Amino acid sequence: MEFHGRSKKAKLVLKGLESRTAPAEVVKERGFNGKEALTKDFAAMRAELEAEGFFEPSPMHVAYRVLEVVLMHAVGAYLLVSAPGGLSSMQAWAGILMLGIVSGRCGWLMHEGGHYSLTGKINFDRCLQIAIYGVGCGMSAAWWRNQHNKHHATPQKLKHDVDLDTLPLVAFNEKIAQKAKHPLLKAWLRNQALLFTPVSCLLVALGWQYYLHPRHIVRTKRMHTEGAALLMRHLLFFGGACHGLSWVASVGVFMAYNAVASAYIFSQFAMSHTHLPVSEADEYLHWVRVTAAFVCIVPLAQYTLLSIRTTL
Description:
67% helix, 14 helices
């Protein structure tokens, strides 16, 4: 329900799967005994929130969020292009800062589109995500959905949660850091608190933008959608926001903008991983508990999950 609540296809697939009662020894081994009350409490609370309209889409809210990122891009580009004195003026750097922040804002907005929690229409949410993530962040919506769904299925679980597979640039947890064997990598991780925001975030963003995500777009034949969004991003930035600048200056502006954007979103993202525990690869926890305790909390479900975590 939480992953595919509005998907008819998912419900048909689930209905077609065979099911059976788990053997008592398996239930006992995995520690599921005594969790029936938690399951019922969660279902009751979810039904109550659903009745109160917590999961109903708000067209005005979606329109405001989309308009916000469009206007911020326009204002940031205007400040950069119209700056007297070019890059030597504070106005130009204010424009770069605003463009970086709104790129991060696009990351949060496309996150809700990827969860299909914006308009209530899956196809429309997916189109919004493709456009917002592609133009605003230079990344692949399909790659994000592929990885993020795996993350939410097993959050903070070693060897399962892809969001923990972050070496060599960063280690969000000491058990991940223990995998580092090379002296240079160990030295890098010892200083990651200092390197994360100014260096690691930008390296991750560039690796995604110019290797992992384009490769996924080509491999999954999405050039006409996601590839077009990436092309539009670069045409708007280098042909519009950087109009009148040399290529060297344009690349420098792009790197500065990208550094702000990646630091803005990844530093917030890291807060959902660095201070939380991990579960072992062979450890099985109740879905409600693992979701409430370990997962990055989505704004739409924030009240729900925080309430569960408080009761736990």
